[in-house]
C-alpha cells in the first residue's frame, strides 16, 4: 500500500484552482497537471507499507489532536526550485501554526512504526503540476506571474485524512481510508 496523510480542500478553493489549471494548462506542453479532485495539502507522505501496518498507523494517527482547527489560506503561484528550470508549479498556503505542529506530531507518532521522519522543515503547499519537460515553460511562467498574488480562498479544517494512492496509467487515484478529528472533542 502507498499511503499519505493530508487535509482536503473546501469546494470553493477546489473550483477556483480547477479554473486556474484550465487557464494555465494550455500554456505548457511539458507540465502534467493534477486533477482538481486530487488536490490536497500533504501532511506526511508515508510511502509503501505492508497492509498489516495499516491498523497500527490508523491507531497512531487517532491519538493526535490540536486545541483548535487548522486555518488555511490559499494564494499565489510559484515554481520549485525556480521559474527558470521548474520541476513543480505550486499554490501557496498560509496556515495557522498548529498545522506545522500537527505535521511534526505525525512524524513523531509514526516513527516507532518504521516510517522515516522528514528531514526538512514542513512547508505547506499545493502541488498543481509537475514538469516532464520544459516545453512552454516561459509562456506558463509569464501567465502565472500575472497571478502571483491571486487569492483562491480559505478554510478551517477540523479533520485530517489517511489516503491510499493507487498509481494508474490514467493518473493517481486517491482513496480515503480513514478520517481523524483535529480537535479532540470535534464530532467526526
Feature tags:
alpha+beta; 5-stranded antiparallel β-sheet; 4-stranded antiparallel β-sheet; 24% helix; globular
Tell me what the structure shows.
The protein is an alpha+beta fold and 188 residues long. It has one domain (2-181): Cyclic Phosphodiesterase, Chain: A (Alpha-Beta Complex), CATH 3.90.1140.10. 24% of the residues lie in helices and 38% in strands. It contains four helices and nine strands, in the order E-H-E-E-H-E-E-H-E-H-E-E-E. Strands 2-6-5-4-7 form a five-stranded antiparallel sheet. The longest helix is centred in the N-terminal third of the chain and has 14 residues, at 11-24. The chain is globular, with a radius of gyration of 17 Å. The mean pLDDT is 91.
Per CATH, the class reads: Alpha Beta
Overall, the morphology is: globular
How many domains, in number, for the residues?
1
Supply the number of helical segments.
4
Mean residue pLDDT: 91
Report the end-to-end length measured between terminal Cα atoms: 25 Å
CATH architecture: Alpha-Beta Complex
